[in-house]
Fold:
Amino acid sequence: MSGGDTKRTAAAGGSVRRALRETVSGLPPAFWWLWTSTLVNRLGGFVATFMALYLTLERGYSASFAGLVAALYGLGGVVSALGAGVMADRLGRRPTLLIAQTSTALSVAVLGLVQHPAAIAAVAFLVGAATNASRPAVQAMLADIVPPEDRVRAFSLNYWAINLGYAISAAAAGFIAEYSYLAGFLGEAVMTLACAVVVFVKLPESRPVRSEQERSAEPDVGLGTVLRDTRFMGVVGLSFLVSLVFMQSSVGLPIAMGDVGLSPAEFGLAMSVNGVLIVVLQIPVTRFIQHRDPRSLLIASSLVLGIGFGLTAFADSVLVLMLTIAVWTLGEIVNAPTQTSLVVRLSPVHGRGRYQGMYTMSWAVASLGAPLVAGFVIDRHGAAWLWASCAALGAAAALGYWALMRGLPPVEGTTKEVEPAPVTSSTPPTAPEAPATAQARE
Structure:
């Protein structure tokens, strides 16, 4: 290698290190403990990955029963989303996380031991409820401990941890399943219990405390407040559309690709593009989007997500399928942290748990409804109509973001305001950010 090449390589390496340092620097220590908890939790994600195979291959149940159990798992998440949001506001983020993660560990261990069909179905419902219950508390705690201008970056890093953990666990779970499914269930229980220990030992309570003056000046935030917030509920509806499209990656996509002759191994190889791109691109993309207009980002990402799935209609080989997955993955990388940050902006400080619970429920309902939508459309009209519908839903979501985000005030650290328009929410404007509590700054 010549001296010039060596210098260019060194300069490129220095730029990468500087970009990485700027992406991860300046965030509070509590964030990194929460990030670690998220990563460890996702490293143990055995149940969600291998539930169907466990029931059909290990236990010998029918595909219909496996589908019923998967639906009950999703229903548990729908039921727990709002309740967990209320708990995060009333009891606090830390107790809610402890209860959710401990309950998840216990229920997952029990699921690996029970054998009666009714017991398996009931415990799967409990696992889904317990697993989903931690999400509103995690999102609310992130909003509590991270300054407004750094939240997109923080949510991006947390999303990166989720996908890094999932990518590793999916690969490891395959080897574990060949040895023992029970070992996989117990391993997930141990990993989740480790998360509960991290939360208990390292994370202080971050819930903002209301003074008596604030209590008398502002009414308490209840679920009715959330439901009457028309702009926020509009965002929840758009989140449902986006997630309904995205959920086809695990529902409609494998069915359609099987119909065109792709083997499970080929499909798995193609889907690995999603995890690889997220792990590789999430951090550099975060640097690009963190101070940009969220309205434009959500419009563009919704369109790209819809177009990516729409192009699946032309996927008749592994290579073409990989290209379509790469397209919608780019939309996912931009949409997920930007949308979560938007939810925080629209949430009153003392109602973050309830608002995050409602937002979480939109994804849970989509995970429950996506299999029904995919099966109906493919059976009645064919897979091409499913992908055309995904493209249409992506365009509808983009149009919705364009309309709903007019007049949204800028966050400190952004460079562009969105165009003014009347605020449509029927609730009073969101209160200014309250100072972080002393515990949250530690």
About this structure: Residues 81 and 361 are 5 Å apart (CA to CA). The chain has two domains: 25-206, 222-430. The domain at 25-206 is CATH 1.20.1250.20 (Growth Hormone; Chain: A;). Residues 352-381 form the longest helix (30 residues).
